[in-house]
From TrEMBL:
Organism lineage: Bacteria, Pseudomonadati, Bacteroidota, Flavobacteriia, Flavobacteriales
Domain of life: Bacteria
Protein name per UniProt: NAD-dependent epimerase
Annotated coiled-coil segments of the chain: none
Pfam families in alphabetical order: Epimerase
Cited CDD domains: UDP_GE_SDE_e (cd05253)
InterPro entries with a match to the protein in the record: Epimerase_deHydtase, NAD(P)-bd_dom_sf
All residue ranges annotated as the NAD-dependent epimerase/dehydratase domain in the record: 3-265
Length: 337
């Protein structure tokens, strides 16, 4: 297949591009490489995919790599560009689109709300319109466990009511799901929304807890523990996330309206303190902890019901201990610690 992966310089997009190329697919990666976090990490991911930084820095220029069994071409572009994105679709003739590009982060949405509307709403509309006019066989897009808000249910199901997001980031993800349903209903475009649950692993984002805690411990700085540590997350290792995406990619929605939502999580939530203990163990030192109240827009717990995806063959198999060790081994190697 010829697959467009947006957000290809990002954490999940990088790993998905690598997997698809390994399977022999033709991959075109798109990213605007914004400075929400260190762009050097984004360029380093692209380098792993065979794209040199000097090439990746240019706008709207296709850069090719033949590093893997399949092929990878990168283009630097904004999703919200109403001229360049439709032209890319027309010229490249994609079979499938995996839209992982978005302005990420719950807390940053309190500081820079405009970025979320531009990328996550306007940009997603351009993706939908481009899919509509170019006979895309399947659109997969990143949603988030944050849409569940302050749910008090023991397990979060895609059948739950998610009408009360508590951050603008979550609201944009909920809006993506509504927009996708409309396009599936009106134009018959098969769409799958992927509700990710706290993804971690090698090449992860610097604004996530795994990265923040590891960096602080390595530099002998204190770590911030919110809600006084009384939190739990459905931490999901990146390889399990990629397995879930590829399973969903290869199985079209079978509903009357070709629309589907699915959780991709571990299904076994861990307490934040247990997560920190695993990091401490593999770093070989105890963290100095500063206990703080809950942050605005954050939630105390997440827990994924993955039963629908399991029917298609999905299973999260990576333990917290294995996943944390893999991240820390990568971190020490990447930063020469």
């Amino acid at each position: 297949m010829k697959v467009l992966v947006t957000g290809a310089a990002g954490f999940i997009g990088y790993h998905l591009s690598k997997r698809l190329m390994g399977e022999g697919h033709i991959v075109v990666g798109l990213d605007n490489i914004n400075d929400y976090y260190d762009v050097n990490l984004k360029y380093a991911r692209l380098n792993e995919l065979g794209i040199q930084r000097g090439d990746a820095e240019r706008w709207n220029v296709l850069c090719e790599s033949d590093k893997f069994k399949g092929s990878f071409t990168f283009v630097r572009m904004h999703l919200e560009n109403r001229d360049e994105l439709p032209t890319l679709f027309k010229n490249e003739g994609f079979d499938v689109v995996c839209n992982l590009a978005a302005q990420a982060g719950v807390r940053y949405s309190l500081e820079n709300p405009e970025a979320y509307i531009d990328s996550n709403v306007v940009g997603f509309l351009n993706i939908l319109e481009s899919c509509r006019h170019n006979n895309i066989k399947h659109l997969l897009y990143a949603s988030s466990s944050s849409v569940y808000g302050e749910s008090n249910k023991p397990v979060f199901s895609v059948d739950d009511n998610v009408d009360y997001p508590i951050s603008l980031y979550a609201a944009t993800k909920k809006s993506n799901e509504l927009m996708a349903f409309t396009y599936s209903h009106l134009y018959g475009i098969p769409t799958t929304g992927l509700r990710f649950f706290t993804v971690y692993g090698p090449w992860g984002r610097p604004d996530m807890a795994m990265f923040l805690f590891t960096k602080a411990i390595s530099e002998n700085n204190p770590i911030k523990v919110f809600n006084n540590g009384d939190m739990s997350r459905d931490f999901t290792y990146i390889d399990d996330i990629i397995n879930g995406i590829t399973i969903a990619l290869n199985n079209l929605p079978e509903n009357k309206v070709p629309y589907r939502l699915t959780n991709i999580g571990n299904g076994n939530p861990q307490s934040l303190m247990e997560f920190i203990e695993a990091i401490e163990e593999h770093m070989g030192k105890e963290a100095e902890k500063v206990f703080l109240p809950m942050q605005a827009g954050d939630v105390p717990r997440t827990a994924a019901d993955t039963s629908e995806l399991e029917k298609l063959g999905y299973k999260s198999t990576t333990s917290i201990n294995e996943g944390v060790k893999a991240f820390i081994d990568w971190y020490k190697g990447f930063y020469n610690i």
